[in-house]
Amino acid sequence: MLDLTGKNALVTGIANNRSIAWGIAQQLHQAGANIGVTYLPDEKGRFEKKVRELADELNPAFYVPCDVQNDQQVEDTFATVAEKWGKLDILIHCLAFADKEGLTGDFTAIPREAFTKSLDISTFSLTRLARSAKPLMTEGGSIITLTYLGGVKVIPNYNLMGVAKAGLEMSVRYLAAELGGQKIRVNGISAGPIRTLASSAVGGILDMIHHVEEIAPLHRTVTQIEVGNTAAFLASDLASGITGQIIYVDSGYEIMGM
Ligand code: NDP
């Protein structure tokens, strides 16, 4: 029943084979979707090379450089989508950033620059990408972002990213309210802790994982592929009645009080 054949999916946030976006891209591809990939450009083109080496097996329709802080690159990304596909069905927003000083130490010590940069990349970018996706989602669509419990409850060291995720989760609701009239659904997946490049910047990620293994009903953390399965479901018609929601894919950790 889960069939994404003929659907066009733009996937952001693949950095390496541990990236959650990679798990999502694989499962969307497995369900039949066409994949387009963005990467964060660097001067020497190393990130592009890495992403291409990894994602080539999914036969992406295109690779485009897209730093979400760069409006021109965002516009060029969606111009490529329009040129290659004509319409977009699925947008995966799977990226975040915070300077080290936002992920350790006292919350009161977070510098203004770090705060602004983190919320621009991690939070505003969803709205920015949705703005450009909207005119291309001519047959409706599904926008999916990635969040974490640290946006709802205090988690040691998650600090600045917690504020970014709180804003992101509220953006999901406002975007869902606006875009519902165009049959565009907007949802977030709140994933349990997974070892990735981004999460290794958060102090104590391994402790977080061990804590989940101890406390969560399923006594383990989740995999990128499990998050990818939920993304494929949310992208599909099986989830046609779901919008504005945050779905927890966390082995049940979120329900526990003690
Ligand atoms: P990754 O490091 O694999 O992915 C983060 C991605 O964000 C990278 O591809 C990175 O690019 C990209 N990125 C950073 N800055 C920018 C920018 N300015 N423009 C475009 N892309 C940018 O880590 P994850 O897979 O863990 O993270 C993916 C999402 O999942 C994030 O939103 C994260 O908060 C969320 N999440 C992660 C959890 C975890 O435990 N890992 C748990 C719950 C949610 P590059 O690496 O090339 O710099």
Automatic annotation (TrEMBL):
NAD(+) binds at residues 13, 19-20, 67-68, 95, 165, 194-198. Substrate binds at residue 98. The active site is at residues 148, 158. GO terms for biological process: fatty acid biosynthetic process. Keywords: Fatty acid biosynthesis, Fatty acid metabolism, Lipid biosynthesis, Lipid metabolism, NAD, Oxidoreductase. GO terms for molecular function: enoyl-[acyl-carrier-protein] reductase (NADH) activity; NADP binding. It comes from the Bacteria. InterPro entries: Enoyl-ACP_Rdtase_NADH, NAD(P)-bd_dom_sf, SDR_fam. Pathway: Lipid metabolism; fatty acid biosynthesis. Its EC number is 1.3.1.9. It catalyses: a 2,3-saturated acyl-[ACP] + NAD(+) = a (2E)-enoyl-[ACP] + NADH + H(+). The keyword GTP-binding does not apply. Belongs to the short-chain dehydrogenases/reductases (SDR) family. FabI subfamily. Homotetramer. NCBIfam families: PRK07370.1 (NF005615). This is Enoyl-[acyl-carrier-protein] reductase [NADH]. The lineage of its organism: Bacteria, Bacillati, Cyanobacteriota, Cyanophyceae, Oscillatoriophycideae.
